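Researcher: Quick test of sequence recovery. Tokens follow.
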């Protein structure tokens, strides 16, 4: 009978240790999953930060491309204006002289209007805007009017 009781006790003890082992395994798996999840959260956070940095870089790149395109368009417009002015073609001398007087006349009128606005207005912002516009127009009209150097043909 002692053998049967010994077998029964061994069976019960084995069962208890098996259940305890399973419980320890489940507890260990829980902590392992918790650790894995924490590691994944860190990785997701890193990926999110990387994605935000890439978005900022793309935004800056787009802004730079837009600024370059705007600047290029501005220079292309100035070049077209200067080319149109340079290509007057064949005309009577008095026509060419009148065309050449347009910018100086407009500039003089613009500065007279600006002086009148400056003298009449009580608002400094309006006067500043008029002076800015007149200065910008004058520099644009006369900014690149120097004679072009002539190179000998080879």
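Model:
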């Amino acid at each position: 009978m002692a053998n049967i009781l010994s077998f029964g006790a061994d069976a019960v003890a084995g069962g208890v240790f098996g259940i305890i082992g399973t419980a320890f395994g489940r507890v260990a798996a829980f902590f392992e999953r918790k650790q894995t999840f924490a590691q994944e959260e860190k990785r997701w956070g890193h990926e999110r930060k990387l994605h935000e940095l890439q978005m900022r870089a793309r935004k800056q790149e787009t802004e730079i491309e837009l600024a370059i395109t705007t600047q290029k368009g501005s220079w292309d417009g100035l070049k077209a204006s200067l080319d149109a002015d340079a290509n007057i073609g064949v005309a009577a001398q008095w026509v060419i002289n009148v065309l050449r007087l347009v910018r100086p006349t407009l500039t003089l009128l613009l500065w007279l209007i600006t002086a009148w606005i400056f003298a009449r207005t009580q608002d400094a912002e309006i006067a500043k805007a008029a002076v800015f516009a007149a200065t910008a127009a004058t520099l644009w009209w006369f900014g690149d009017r120097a004679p072009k150097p002539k190179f000998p043909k080879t």
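Residues 122 and 135 are 20 Å apart (CA to CA).
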